[in-house]
Amino acid sequence: MQQAKKGQLKLWYQQPATDWNEALPLGNGKLGAMVFGGVDTDRFQLNEETIWDGEPNHHIAPYAKYLVEKTREAIFAGKLKEADEMALLAYRGNDQGSYQTLGDLTLEFDHKQPTYTNYRRELDLETAIATTRYRMGNDYYYREALVSAPDQVLAIHLSCIRGAFNLRIKLSRPQYDYITTTEIPNTLMMYGKCGNGTIKFCTQVKVKAHFSYGGKITYESDHIVINNAREVTIYLTAASTYAHADPVSICQERLQSAEKKGYAQIKADHIKEYQELFNRVQFTLDSSSNSGELPIDERLMRVNEGTDDPELAVLYYQFGRYLLISSSRPDAQLPANLQGIWNEHMQAPWKGRYTININTEMNYWPAEQCNLSECHEPLFKLIERLKESGRKIARDLYGCRGFVAHHNTNIWADASPQDQWSVSTYWPMGAAWLCLHLWERYEYTLDVSFLAQAYPTMREAAEFFIDFLVEDKNGYLVTCPSLSPENSYIAPDGHRTALCAGPSMDTQIIRQLYTACIAAANILKTDEDFCQQLAQILEKLPPIQTTSLGTIREWLEDYPEIEPGHRHISHLFALYPADQISVENTPVLAEAARKTLERRLSHGGGHTGWSCAWIINMWARLQDSANAYKYLQMLLGKSTYPNMFDAHPPFQIDGNFGGTAGINEMLLQSHGGLIRLLPALPAQWPSGTIKGIKARGNYEITINWAAGKLVEAQILPLPINNPSQASEPRVVKVKYPQISTYKIYCDGVEIPSQYLDDNTIAFPVEAHKIYSICSADR
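^ that's the sequence the OP posted. Answer follows.
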């Protein structure tokens, strides 16, 4: 396949970052840094995943269960103003605290020259290394920075060709009390507490230098001074009491190990470990443009002005994969939050929490399909910890079995309602949606051992709704009280509210979860009686209904919405990420979903980065390549900061992850038992190759196309961890226009296949063999 053009997988700039949204992110899932690349002063804004204020708190209001029941009665009686008043008393959320910055590492240079030239700052996605270079007179300065997963350090290497430099190194943290000391030999240490001190942290820096004549290092109370150096290596690490009883000792051990190992070996090990994940997927789009020769900030402005830049779409896709690798690793304590792992504030935007009415879930949409399954695992850890709090809340707030979570959670996996925000607080579907990620991991890997561990959690989330669902006047089983996330409507009496019974998204999530639980139990050969109970409930759930305008209803009743252009499009959950609406199987509902999108967008929807990203995925599911491309361009041109972070605004990383998933959905879909090749390929991408992406069923896929048509698709079935199915033949079903004109080859030999129709083909496969779908006239 073609290799990426020079510069295609690099974010590069011709000037230092003057703002946080211009700085470049590094991370290893636990430790993060934003690199500014300043000349006289360089700032490395630091994060560590567990730096949160607040404390564990799963409290609910007194008499909450009674008040919830009265709220439900008022909703069914149509007394919505009364229901709102009681809900405010019933749902008194805790303060879940905020994710915080770890602080700053500042490098102050005493340059002998007043000006600089030949400046370049870049982040290489193929190595996960940030570099800064510039020239002063005859001296050439070069800096490299990386955050190593194998060694758990931020490593910065500074060098100067021909000349030497003086340097002052400082650690600092805004607002809150901390102590910086050099009491440990050759080490700068900052330690302090987060907020009320529930979590305490330690950050340590160690320096190794090579000098010109007369060079030396001196240590003062809060900084290190280096004079006349030609080369300096800085190692930094951090830890907290959340994960370690003695974070000071942990930091010392890491730095001693790093110093002994040396920068060259740390760099080599870092690249090798990172590329094992990143290099699984290769993606190129043929283009005659030389856009890679332009800096990223200029390319983004050109897209905003209407210029097509296919290579920028490739870069954005791989940047999303880079961000997931950098903010969510299997050994991390926590999943990627609203800012991933990067945040410069003591009180992060939206407190950096896990908003689980879409944002956290969107963070992990790329994990399986973009061949980064391991990066999904921190989310699974959070789900498991949610159960303890979620069981208590289910029992004490609702009188139900199982476990529940609402629209936000935090480092302590608090499942209680939050914020007393009437358009979000009362939503009880967070745990149910999160558990669908457990099923998605199984669908992509077919790992029965994983499913056996995950199923009890899925079952508990499903069990909650057995008790919580109530029958309405039409005989449907519905959630109540609930709402459609962050949107509101006008009731028949003119009252404006979000509270309701049976919002469409709730029913769609329950249908997806119950269907998954039944499938999982059948695979595991367990829980027959429980599955029958779920099946009976499925029969009594409300169907997906349409409004008088021909759109999908957001609420059980055809209420007028207050914001027709609202950023949430929750009632299309059934289209994406679920598979209850599809072009092939439910064409009438698919058309209603199209009208829903058109109406939302005609009133200004999709105006936030993450919402625009969700819309890309929806258009892709509707196989509408023109609109999928249109909103990708909008995401890049209007909702992307110079450093390619997503702009809500402010920064929310879910837009990056959702956009990456959307690009993948344009090229490959695998829901409903079909592998769809190039289902929403835009005309602006006539030729290209994507290699190594995943399809449900544990298939690795490569697609090559030219002149807008499939040239060849390769399917590599990976082994299944399921002894009961090991000897059974696997059959793959592939959909592509006029696929009846294509032939199937294995090891160069044509194999028989079954054409289900002109667009769908089925054929048996074996693990580790590559199956090629090629045009018959090739």
